Amino acid sequence: MSFHDELILTVSSKRQKEDELHRLRNVELPAIRTAIQLAREYGDLSENFEYQAARQAQAILNGRIAELEALITRARVIEDNAAEGSVTVMIGSTILLRNTEDAEDEFKVTITDAASANGDDKISSLSPIGKAVMGFKTGDIVKVTLPDGESSFEIVQVII
Fold first, then answer.
1. How far apart, in Å, are the Cα atoms of 20 and each of 11, 89, 101, 113, 140?
2. 99-140 pLDDT tens trace
3. N or C, where is the chain less crowded by C-beta within 10 Å?
4. Contacts for 57 with CB less than 8 Å, ≥ 6 apart
């Protein structure tokens, strides 16, 4: 696994995932088990909509629990303010980028762990732009392969 493929979570993001996992295991899963048990009491399971819906919800919930367990186990955890004072781009950095082909196309983004990205002003370090800028500094030009082709961006400023 290379640096760019490494799964990274900030301390606060890991805590949020652990809280969600705890809630799913200790609140949601028991509630679904109760719903399944009640639905069984209605009789014929093959035509029992409540039973089928509860089983489907249980399967979805079990999938999310497995996903969270894998994420928490596999991720390397970094401090929330790890980028503070850094001159190179890393998770937690807020940067100003300029498209080299259109000098008026500037935008500011914060590089986050995958779990915290929102696709707007917070992008994952695993996204095409996130991967391209990691480890670079102000003034560097990076090439990014996007779905619509290759673009180049100048890192105008590493703000944080």
1. 14, 29, 43, 17, 39
2. 998 878 899 999 988 888 887 889 998 899 999 999 899 999
3. N
4. 32, 35
pLDDT beyond 80 at 43 = no
Q: What's the number of domains the chain is made of?
A: 2
Q: How many CA atoms within 13 Å lie on the side-chain side of 28?
A: 17
Say if residue 65 is in the same domain as residue 7: yes
Q: How far apart are CA 95 and CA 39, in angstroms?
A: 53
Tell me the two tokens of residue 125: 């370090």
- CA 156 to chain CA centroid, Å, is 25
Domain that residue 149 falls in: 94-158
**pLDDT of 9 higher than 50:** yes
**Residue ranges of the alpha helices (H) in the chain?**
11-23, 29-40, 49-74, 128-133
- Asked whether residue 73 falls in the same domain as residue 140, the answer is no
Reported pTM: 0.62
